[in-house]
Amino acid sequence: xxxxxxxxSVGTELLLGNVANxxxxxxxxxxxxxxxxxxxxxxxxxxxERLKAAVAIAKRRADIIITTGGLGPTCDDLTKxxxxxxxxxxxxxxxxxxxxxxxxxxxxxxxxxxxxxNYQQAYLPxxxxxxxNACGTxxxxxxxxxxxxVLMLPGPPRECLAMFKACGMPYLQKFTGTEIHSHNVRIFGxxxxxxxDKLRPLMLELANPTLAPYAKEGECMLxxxxxxxxxxxAETMMAPVMEKIRSTLGNFIYGIxxxxxxxxxxxxxxxxxxxxxxxxxxTGGLVAKRMTDVPGASAVFLGGAVTYTNAAKTAIxxxxxxxxxxxxxxxxxxxxxxxxGARRLLGADLGIGVTGxxxxxxxxxxxAVGTVFVALDAADGSWCRSLNLGHDRARIRTMAANHxxxxxxRCLTGLEIEKRV
Length: 421
Hints:
Layout: E1 4-10, H1 12-15, H2 22-34, E2 37-44, H3 48-61, E3 64-68, H4 79-86, E4 91-93, H5 95-107, E5 123-125, E6 129-131, E7 140-145, E8 148-153, H6 157-176, E9 179-187, H7 192-205, E10 210-216, E11 219-228, H8 231-249, E12 253-256, H9 261-272, E13 276-280, H10 286-292, E14 301-306, H11 310-317, H12 321-327, H13 332-346, E15 350-356, E16 371-378, E17 381-388, H14 393-412
Parallel strand pairs: 1-2, 1-3, 3-8, 13-14, 13-15
Antiparallel strand pairs: 4-5, 6-7, 7-8, 9-11, 9-12, 10-11, 15-16, 16-17
Helix pairs in contact: 2-6, 3-4, 7-8, 9-14
């Protein structure tokens, strides 16, 4: 049986644009992994009558209603009261939920000052399944009424997503009666349209498992999902499809079920027992920042230098001043010397050098905005990609960093390094 969900996000701050509605995005992504269709997102202010009207509409077009927000202790947190009334549910005091709130105040907030209005959060619909909140004070809950599954989650994004993963997804998985398993195929070097064109015949013929494309920042992703009675059955169903994906996209695939290019590079560096150092100009330390965002990076990343000026490039990295004057700071020669300088300076196995024109205007050389050179230096050679990455400053920096990581992963997996992909 197919199930459809509607997400109702509650909060006037969402309507005013003061806060981005990331809850609906995050929950939709998780529901997709469960194979549950999301047909509508609704945003309602802190107004009981408008929320009640939204719920009445949702009842008619979805069999799963998920609300976010309005579970806190203040007078405008009225989601539970409104939904209990909409579904003729009585609110009852849950002592266990109250004690968990007191424990959270004591253990996490380091205070026993617990005002009476906090107890509002412990009133929950009679007979509901209570969702504990590991990241805050407001519990969530779920119940069935009038043929609809209703889930209520807190509004703060960190609390909302953690609760949905820990409590909401297992609850819905039991309700759907099947196990949903998926794999994320991460791709760099192909645009979404090219990737989809290569895989369209396969996507159109699939029903279960399914294959869905996603455009990410500077890269693409495919999600392969199967519904089955067990995890083993789902994996068996997905295996031949995964093989077709691999044979079609080849080494544009940089990983399966990895978080990012930098995370994949960390895995490969650890496996090879190699270390990395970086020298950056137009990316301003973004390669180093993204590398150190990955837990465990200290095992392989030795450090980096942001050499934004010509003087810094020559003084810190040993870049030849005559080469800078003759070829310009944004050039393959300078990028290679930056990579070599970073590797030598920190004693690393691999060095990355990035220099270019991120805009909004060109420098004195007159090179087009978006011209970037990314170099990789190792004991057995030096490579450089010459790139034209468009005119958007943020995208130029992101894509330059992506190319740096792609060169690292290609070097460590024996693939061609220098060719622009």
